[in-house]
Amino acid sequence: MGWCHFIVRRTDFCMPIRVEICGLDIYDPIKDEVKARSVADIAYWMVDDDYDGSNFVVKQLFFCGGSQDEFSQWKKRLSDLARTKTRRNAEKTLKI
After folding, report:
1. Residue 62 host element (H or E)
2. Which domain holds residue 53?
3. List of E strands, the chain
4. Distance from CA of residue 32 to its chain's centroid?
5. Does one domain contain both 39 and 80?
6. pLDDT digits (tens, 9 = 90+) for 73-96
7. 10 with 17: CB under 8 angstroms?
8. DSSP codes, 5-22
9. Cβ(81)–Cβ(89) below 8 Å
């Protein structure tokens, strides 16, 4: 769990708002402490624009930091997941 520090900027009420993430505090339940993290530690953040207070459904995913290695790992895992799902669907269709 974490708490995000951010600034909301709106230059014109006709334009969309701009949100700038300044940092993040992460709670470690094992050590029972809160640790401040920098923006560079945030690899991605997710948005649920219709959060009902109990169910968080990811509607948008923003990659905003982290190293290229992290993104490469994400890309590979998503690709592997897509291939596995496609293979399963083909096996189910062909009854293999």
Report:
1. strand 60-63
2. 1-65
3. 2-9, 18-28, 33-37, 44-47, 60-63
4. 24
5. no
6. 777 887 888 888 887 777 777 775
7. yes
8. EEEEE-S-TTSPPEEEEE
9. no
